[in-house]
Amino acid sequence: MGQAICVFCASSSGLPEVHRRAARELGAELARRGHRLVYGGGNVGLMGELARSVHEHGGTVFGAIPRTLVDRELAYEPADELVVTDTLRERKAEMDAHADAFLALPGGFGTLEELLEVITLRQLRLHDRPVVLLNVAGYYDPFLAMVGSMVEQGFAPEGEGALFRVARTPAEAVDMAELGPGPVPAGGEPPVEALAEDWTDGSAGP
Question: Which of 5, 54, 103, 203 has the fewest CB atoms within 10 Å around its CB?
C-alpha cells in the first residue's frame, strides 16, 4: 500500500536544470511506487515540476497552500485535494497531519525552516517518521557540514543517521522514505533547548 510522502522544496523560478530534473524524477518515482505526494500546493519552481510529474505518471497530489498565494494565482489547481489555509503555520500543520514520511529537495529559507522543524520534532521524540534529504549536486553539503560541527561541539546530540538520512538520487530517497517509522534517538532526555509548537502536541499528526 502506498504512503503519503511530504516533500519540502523550492518555489523559486529559474533554477538550474539539475534541480528541476531531480524534482521531475522524484515525482515520477513517487507515482510509479503508488505513493501520494503531500506538499505546499504551489505551481511554480520545484513545487510545480514535482506536482506535474506526479500527475503525468499517474500519481495523486495533496497540496496545502495559504490563501494569500491562492489569490496570487500560485496554487496548483489540478491537485487531487487542495487545502487552502489562512496562515503558513496552518499549512505546515496540514502537511504534517497527512504525512507518513518527510523528504527535502533543495530549497531556500522556507524549505530549510520546514526541514529543521521536522528534524527538531524527531529529536524531541514527537514523531518517529523518516526524514530524508535529497542531496542533489551536493546542495546540502554545507548544511551537513554544519550539522557535523554542531554535534562535534555539543550543540546537538545527534545528526545524520539518527535524526535524518541523506540520499543522492530520487530512487534512493524514496527507498529511505519507505522504511517507515524508525526508532527515536536514544540517550537520555531530549534537549530542553528545542521547543515545540502547539500544533505538534500529537493531536494533529500520526
Answer: 203
Confidence at 189, pLDDT banded by 50, 70, 90: low
- Domain for residue 13, yes or no? yes
In this structure, is residue 189 part of a structural domain? no
Query: Residue 76: which domain range?
Result: 4-184
For 62, counting Cβ atoms within 10 Å of its Cβ (0-12 exposed, 13-18 middle, 19+ buried), the class is: buried
Q: Which of 140, 162, 141 is nearest to 151 (CA)?
A: 162
Alpha-carbon separation of residue 69 from 50, 65, 88, 114 (angstroms):
18, 7, 10, 17
| Strands lying side by side in the sheet with 81-85 | 81-85, 60-66, 36-39, 4-8, 101-104, 131-134, 165-167
What are the cell numbers at 60?
495523486
pLDDT digits (tens, 9 = 90+) for 63-92: 999 999 999 889 999 999 999 999 999 999
pTM for the model stands at: 0.88
Instruction: Indicate the pairing of strand 36-39 with strand 81-85.
Output: unpaired
C-alpha cell at 70: 491562492
Question: Is position 160 within any domain?
Answer: yes
- Non-local (6+) Cβ contacts of 87 within 8 A are 66
Q: Find the CATH number of the domain harbouring 50.
A: 3.40.50.450
What letter would DSSP give residue 58?
T
Give dist(CA 186, CA 202) in Å, integer: 20
